[in-house]
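pls ignore typos typing on phone
copper (II) ion + seq
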Amino acid sequence: MKKVLLASFGLVVMVALLAWAGGEQKPQMSMDQMKAEMSKCTMCKEMLPYMNQEWWMGMKHEVHNLKNGALFIHAYPTATEKELVDIHKMCTAMETAGMGLEKMTAKEAQGKLCQHCQEWFSVMKDGAKDEWVLTKTGSIGLVTSDNPKTVAKIHVMADKVRQMFAGTPEKM
Ligand SMILES: [Cu+2]
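k done
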């Protein structure tokens, strides 16, 4: 299941980037720049084929801290049933890509993952547990650990994701 954690986080990051690129604030990077960045990351590049879809911009995202981790809600409330098939297909494509990550060393991950996927790779290496469910509007994930240090790390990650969606691109 760990691979899904990475997949989902990459998704979060890129949707946040996309939100900035299309938002009212000054774009921090153009769509082409963003795509170039994504193509360098083993996880994020799996999303490239779907980026022109309308549902990308309709994503609603929530992150909530738990005592032992965090809860991630990805929802595409505007997606039709047909689009949801694509959304779930994308999740599966990233899961497949993620299978390769399990064999990666931390050093390899540095070369093959973007900064944010690397941070989640690190949480994963700590032994965090996660469980993801495909839902009628997208997906929901629980990321937890019995180790207080790892829980603290998960909370830092959750904060970063919230900040991204609050529009603080300097954290990128
Ligand atoms: Cu990435």
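Residues 2-22 form the longest helix (21 residues). Confidence is low (pLDDT under 50) at residues 168-172. more later
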